[in-house]
Amino acid sequence: MNAYKQYKEQTIYTMTKSELLQLVYNELLKRLTRAELALDMKQMDVFEQSITRSMEIVQYLMDTLNHNYPISRELNQMYQFFIYELSRINSSRKKEIIQELKPLVTDLRDAFLEAGKRCGY
Fold this sequence. Notes:
The protein is mainly alpha-helical. The chain is globular and about 40 Å long. It starts with a helix and ends with a helix. The protein is 85% helix and 0% strand. The chain has helices at 2-13, 17-40, 44-63, 71-92, 95-119. It has five helices and no strands. Helix 2 (17-40) packs antiparallel against helix 3, helix 2 (17-40) runs antiparallel to helix 5 and helix 3 (44-63) runs antiparallel to helix 4.
């Protein structure tokens, strides 16, 4: 188990900023999908854990924004919208809101991927 942990840590340490950001966005999408499936299976504890973790991920993205760039303001507003939508999902337990949010997250992830490629990250 220790060797696996070392491998995992080494992999993360050797990733580019763009790859790390992709990892975070992929985890957010995974958690949203998990919440969606949990609603279908009426596993409310899994649903709540997934939404809570999704909110933590978005908060992390907000906390790590570099405000030296003008785009950070727009990203912050997008992340605040995500938090709002996640709160709505948590209280209403409506799968439709998850289905509306996932494409926005995917588009943002893909935009960062493209920007990373253009910048050589």
